[in-house]
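Retro notes (design track)

What went well: tokenization of the new backbones is finally stable.
What didn't: we kept losing track of which sequence belonged to which structure.
Fix going forward: every design gets posted as structure first, then sequence, in one message. First example under the new rule, 184 residues:
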């Protein structure tokens, strides 16, 4: 069964919006709203990706998702924020998902190209990012556990540390196994 690509169908945010949005969000977005209330009052919208920017918060995004659940079609609501260290705009889907840089989300949502939101390359980029984000603290935990094992001689402490080390290795092996999932 073929699905239509998900397109950015609405942008909600106070005017004037941040200038980066002109660069990141396709100019072809058919509907722009100043507030959540304006968006919810519109009944002529095509299903697609709804981007919610400031001053709307996650509560507004959840409210929109709840209302859209009753409407037919495929809707995805994403809350936009600059919560990252480098100040890049990210989009967090309300239902589930990993925060994506806004350009990646718009590109994955079809923007001008018509690419489906969850095409294989998008999923694989999630996997690569998750592997990286899991592997860094995992490596640190493994190193700290091994250092403690070198210093401790009490069997009451060594045994739990060895259990921790074993479990960390299991997670590491799982992360390594995900390495076969790569973009072509």
């Amino acid at each position: 069964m073929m699905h239509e690509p998900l397109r950015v169908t609405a942008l909600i945010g106070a005017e004037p919006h941040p200038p980066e949005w002109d660069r990141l969000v396709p100019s072809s977005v058919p509907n722009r709203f100043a507030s959540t209330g304006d968006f919810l009052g519109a009944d002529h919208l095509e299903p697609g990706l709804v981007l919610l920017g400031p001053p709307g918060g996650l509560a507004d995004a959840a409210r929109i998702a709840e209302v859209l659940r009753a409407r037919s079609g495929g809707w995805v609501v994403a809350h936009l924020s600059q919560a990252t260290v480098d100040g890049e705009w990210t989009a967090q889907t309300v239902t589930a998902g990993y925060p994506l840089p806004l350009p990646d989300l718009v590109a994955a949502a079809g923007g001008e190209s018509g690419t489906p939101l969850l095409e294989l390359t998008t999923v694989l980029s999630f996997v690569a990012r998750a592997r990286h984000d899991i592997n860094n603290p995992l490596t640190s935990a493994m190193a700290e556990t091994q250092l403690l094992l070198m210093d401790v001689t009490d069997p009451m402490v060594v045994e739990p540390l060895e259990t921790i080390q074993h479990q960390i290795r299991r997670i590491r092996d799982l992360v390594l196994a995900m390495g076969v999932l790569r973009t072509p």
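Added context from the reviewer: The chain is about 45% helix and 15% strand.
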